[in-house]
Amino acid sequence: MAKLTFIGAGSTVFAKNVLGDVMLTPALQDFEIALFDIDPVRLKESENMLNNIKKTSGSTCTIKSFSDRKEALRGAKYVVNAIQVGGYDPCTITDFEVPKKYGLRQTIADTVGIGGIFRNLRTIPVMLDFAVDIREVCPDALFLNYTNPMAVLTNVMNTYGGVQTVGLCHSVQACVPEMFKHLGLDQTGVKAKIAGINHMAWLLEVTKDGVDLYPEIKRRAAEKQKEKHHDMVRYEMMLKFGYYITESSEHNAEYHPYFIKRNYPELIERFNIPLDEYPRRCVEQISNWAKMRDEIVNDAHLKHARSHEYASYIFEAIETDVPFKIGGNVMNTGGLIANLPREACVEVPCLVDRSGVNPTYIGNLPPQLAALNRTNINTQLLTIEAAITGKREHIYHAAMLDPHTAAELSMDEIVAMCDDLIEAHGDWLPKFSVV
């Protein structure tokens, strides 16, 4: 019996998707599903929810909750990670409110930018603790990371954790369907090639019956830009740089220096940029949880339909040796993307079968796309340097090289803001040396 451990199982809705998918997959029916979360109430709620799905689906998977993380991991063949360190209150609030004092505004703040840097710094030590346990009790496990900041955390687990890790994000499989729907295009028979870095991967090729669809995509996108809509940043980037980006406009508004600017406040309205979007979502989710709890935790007749999440398809491909293609976050070993740093984590097509997750070689990205990726990779790698060395100066370096932060603040302001964020986070962060 193969064992699958889910860390952060109190993320009930996400656990429903990933583990519900497992229970609906015939090849995975003998799995033992081990649940772990630091919140015993949410852990119990997820266990109840999954047992309801088990009954309605007729699954023969075994479900068990653990209060001891190491025991939850012991003997696991697969580990799924979906934690969030610090939660909305206090840490997300801190990530947004302290930079606001310096006039630095954000939308999501979970990938790069000043918010992404500090989310990394409080999450990396926790992830490396996981790695210690994994090396001891399930050293051959495949670790599927769903936690943001995706690129940095996946990089750290592979490079410093000694754990075979693949990062998984929703944006790759949603990219073409959502864009085609918005532009009124039929995606039947469409072939696409996507590669880059997480949240900034590129739709490099999009064809149908050998015909390049980009000219028509750009024509329709230019027409859409004449009126306000939800994806204006991505369309603008495509029209200026030539290629569509996988992740949403609210994310990409803060990955680049072009959109959220104090000296050009009209850009917020022009490109329909939702400042403080992630805190709003958090508040809404918290307020809606009581109703959702009744709908998905306490419903004895709860049913589930297999989702588009990659996890169950990865397990199925490995267990059955029937290949499946994913977009995965992996190390740029061997120069999978030749004009990006080899020490970076990249997002590329991967073929999964019994041999595991096998990334494909991409070669060079168009030079303007590689340049845009490198601006975010710079901050990612320096954030890792700060976390591993414990040196505060590398936090400053990471923030100074972040495109949005550097475009808005002076070096002295950036240093002061980082110091304020370190103080505000308190014990959520490890101690960083000044020298």
From TrEMBL:
Q: Name one GO biological process term.
A: carbohydrate metabolic process
Keyword Magnesium present in the record's keywords: the answer is no
Q: Where is the Glycosyl hydrolase family 4 C-terminal domain?
A: 194-405
Q: Which cofactor does it need?
A: NAD(+); Mn(2+)
* Sites where the protein binds Mn(2+): 169, 199
Q: Which InterPro entries match?
A: GH4_Enzyme_sf (IPR053715), Glyco_hydro_4 (IPR001088), Glyco_hydro_4_C (IPR022616), Lactate_DH/Glyco_Ohase_4_C (IPR015955), NAD(P)-bd_dom_sf (IPR036291)
Residue sites binding substrate per the record: 148
- UniProt cross-references to Gene3D superfamilies, sorted A to Z: AglA-like glucosidase
Alphabetic keyword roster: Carbohydrate metabolism, Cobalt, Glycosidase, Hydrolase, Iron, Manganese, Metal-binding, NAD, Nickel
One term of GO molecular function: metal ion binding
* Cofactor binding summary note: Binds 1 NAD(+) per subunit.
Residue spans making up a coiled coil are: none
Q: Which domain of life is it from?
A: Bacteria
Q: Which family does it belong to?
A: Belongs to the glycosyl hydrolase 4 family.
- Protein name, per record: Alpha-glucosidase/alpha-galactosidase
What organism does this protein naturally occur in? Cohnella cholangitidis
From which lineage does this chain's organism come?
Bacteria, Bacillati, Bacillota, Bacilli, Bacillales
